[in-house]
Every structure is written in C-alpha cells, then in structure tokens.
Design brief:
Elements: H1 6-13, E1 18-25, E2 31-34, E3 40-42, E4 45-49, E5 54-56, E6 70-75, H2 79-88, E7 94-102, E8 113-126, E9 132-139, H3 154-160, H4 170-175, E10 177-180, E11 183-186, H5 197-204
C-alpha cells in the first residue's frame, strides 16, 4: 500500500481532497493527459485535460512479472486523430499512471503518486459515431515474456529506429571478402571453408 503524505491525509479525512489521474506515454513525442477538466502542470510538463473522454480499466495489484493488462481509452475524437494515436503507440514504450490529489481550490496537494507503470502492448481503434483508440499496456517485467512482433527486415528496423539503415547493407556484409592475416577471407560467418561462387575466382588468384 502507498503511504500518503500528511497533507494529503488531512485533506482526505476532512473531505477536502479531490482525486484525478495523470498518465504519461513515452512516445517519440511524449503524450501526457489529465483525467480532470483542467490542464495540469507538473515538473514543467503540461498534462492535457480529457475529462470524460478518457478512461482507464480496473487496475489490480499483482507482481511485476504478471501481465496485469491495463487499457487506456481516449474517445470522442475524429477518426484521423484516432489513427495517428494508434500508429504512435509503439510496442514497449513506457507508460506511467499517477494519482493526483487537489484541494477545493484546485491546487495540487503534495506530489502525484505513481499508481501503475508498465509498457505498451498494442493499440486498437474504433471507428464510427464514437471513434476511440484503446491502448493496451502490460505491467512491469511481464513485457520480457512477450514477443516483440517485429520482422527481420530493413523496413521494420527503420520504422523502429528512424534513420538507421543497417539492414540495407546486411546482404553485402554476408558476401564481402576481407583481408585477414595476409589472405583474403570470406566474411559469411567462418574464416575457413569455401567462398561463394561469386568470390571463387578471387580466392583462386
């Protein structure tokens, strides 16, 4: 159980504390939201108010190695925004949910308390009159027991690591002849054995 700061306890017992939530997604461009109706600034960052348009599924207290999926939903937005949000939700991106206490005047009481943390598993969209994006996340270390879902291709690698063109040269590296110990060697995994047909003439010289 999380221990509350004395200032928060005083307000809560006097029925002068209001609870809301802050959620932070570590995407390429970090996204931060507040479950209330007013924007909140904390640690120099602004959490955009979504009010009733946002929702969080029930959170159960379990070990970090148990998946314990949590779904974050943002609805009531146009289809393009829903699709963009789903595309930005990359597997493995960190997610943090904080519990925020405010007084009757709306001022923050103490510091927000980390309620849950994990990473993005996948995103799904709902199109229609009530367009929405659902981002399903998994807790703690449970993500290590899941496949990344990626493909061993240049396109997939560059989608995950923009500007990294390593895979484009992988095939050339497999068949490249290099100079090793005064003799040319085939670089395809072993320094002994026969070179591929395309390099056979070079070795025979």
């Amino acid at each position: 159980m999380t221990e509350l700061a004395p200032a928060i306890v005083t307000k809560v017992t006097g029925n002068h504390a209001h609870v809301s939530y802050l959620v932070e997604f570590d995407l390429t461009a970090p996204a931060r939201f507040h479950s209330g109706i007013l924007n909140v600034t904390w640690n120099g960052e602004t959490y955009v108010a979504v009010g009733g348009l946002g929702a969080v599924s029930t959170i159960q207290n379990r070990a970090l190695t148990v998946p314990n999926p949590v779904t974050f939903t943002l609805g009531g937005v146009d289809v393009r925004t829903v699709d963009l949000a789903a595309d930005a939700a990359k597997f493995g991106s960190a997610v943090r949910l904080y519990r925020l206490f405010r007084d009757d005047a709306g001022a923050m009481i103490g510091e927000p308390i980390l309620r849950w943390s994990g990473s993005i598993d996948y995103a799904s969209t709902v199109h229609g009159g009530q367009s929405a994006v659902n981002i399903v996340c998994t807790a703690g270390l449970a993500v290590l027991d899941k496949r990344a879902g990626g493909r061993f291709t240049a396109e997939d690698h560059e989608r995950r690591f923009s500007g990294d063109t390593y895979f484009r040269y992988l095939q050339d590296m497999k068949t490249k002849v290099i100079q090793w110990g005064g003799r040319p060697r085939y670089s395809g995994g072993r320094f002994s054995g026969r070179a591929p047909e395309s390099n056979r003439d070079f070795h025979a010289r």
